[in-house]
Write a structure and sequence with these properties.
The protein is built from eleven helices and five strands. It is of the alpha+beta class. It is elongated and about 105 Å long.
Length: about 350
């Protein structure tokens, strides 16, 4: 079935395959004394449905006169019948499904006069005119509504896909950027100390091995959802605030003195995960940009929010206006939880990152 739906040629001609038999059967069963179904009637029926083949390329205003003509042709041939409305209803459904809100509203407004023009020549009195018009107008509006609901559902699905791609990109950036910066710094330390202090150089190499292993583990967890479409996307990374000492150790191995002060009992898991990534990215920027000697991390769980402050005594260098990819990613993480984040040069020198996440 999915293969059939994926065949665009078949889908284009589907109305011509489906609708004429329905309309011809209704003509045969009609009790209104309309003209009999003959070769001319069959030809008219297929001609009436034919404009739907070009429904994707034609806009509403180009297609609607053709559909009005189709309806008039069939009503003239077979007398008033509700099934005739299947032709414009099909087109209106696909119009709303493909084009969205603006075209749906325009079509809904223009629909009433089109229906009146189509049925007016065939109404014997005012009562019949009102009855036929309302019935056919309601069915066409229903087709529009169903098409618009499907468009809205597909748009929401696309939005969720976009958000998931952004989440994965943010996770990959955080994992890879932090690991590569730490490895780069530690490799430099190892190269510098290789002859002077082999023991310290060996320790730096062990840090590189540990950092790269942790990064690979995080990448496998993050990208697992791409390898297995049936796997649910994780709410966030496995690491939390309790793992900040591991991040701090990587900076210490590179010669930066780091203090970590965390008081965050009872913090929900999503906040734990986002906070860890924010601190990780902030400390990565300390290695990458700040040329700092000292850095501090202070995390506090207050009554209604979690506060994060990461500060260093470096040069205060960073992306202009704090608009780099790392800072942007931190802001996105905070905003995703309804929080805020500010990053920029501190008043007394260095660089400072402050975040507040609601609990």
């Amino acid at each position: 079935m999915n293969g059939l739906l994926a065949n665009r040629t078949l889908m284009r001609w589907l109305p011509v395959i489906v609708l004429p038999p329905i309309l011809l059967f209704d003509g045969l069963m009609s009790k209104h004394g309309g003209k009999s179904v003959d070769a001319i009637g069959v030809l008219f029926t297929y001609l009436a449905v034919l404009p739907l083949v070009w429904r994707e390329g034609l806009g509403f205003f180009a297609l609607s006169p053709l559909l009005v003509g189709s309806v008039v042709l069939l009503l003239w041939r077979y007398e008033p019948a509700t099934t005739v409305v299947a032709i414009p209803a099909w087109a209106l459904f696909e119009l709303a499904k493909a084009k969205g809100r603006r075209e749906t509203v325009i079509a809904a407004v223009a629909l009433a006069p089109c229906v009146i023009v189509a049925v007016l020549p065939f109404a014997d009195d005012a009562g019949q005119m009102v009855s036929i018009t309302l019935r056919n107008w309601a069915l066409c509006e229903l087709a529009l509504a169903v098409g618009f609901l499907m468009w809205h559902r597909e748009r929401e699905a696309d939005q969720r896909v976009g958000e998931e791609r952004l989440r994965i990109a943010r996770e990959v950036h955080d994992v890879v950027a932090h690991a590569m910066v730490a490895i780069n710094v530690q490799a430099g330390v190892a190269a510098h100390l290789l002859d002077q202090d082999p023991g310290q150089a060996r320790e730096a190499l062990l840090h590189i091995k540990r950092t790269s292993g942790e990064a690979l583990t995080d990448l496998r967890a993050t990208l697992g959802v791409l390898r297995d479409p049936g796997q649910s996307a994780p709410v966030g990374p496995a690491a939390g605030l309790g793992d900040l000492e591991t991040v701090a150790d990587q900076l210490r191995a590179a010669g930066v003195e780091v203090t970590v002060d965390v008081d965050a009992d009872g913090v929900p898991s999503p906040v734990h995960s986002a906070s860890y990534r924010i601190v990780q990215e902030a400390l990565t920027n300390v290695l990458r940009h700040a040329r700092a000697q000292q850095a501090s991390v202070v995390v506090r769980a207050l009554e209604d929010r979690l506060t994060i402050v990461v500060a260093d005594d470096g040069t205060g260098a960073g992306a202009p206006g704090g608009a780099g990819a790392g800072v942007r990613g931190m802001r996105e993480r905070a905003a995703a939880l309804g929080g805020t984040l500010d990053a920029g040069p501190a008043a007394d020198g260095g660089w400072r990152v402050e975040a507040a996440l609601p609990l």
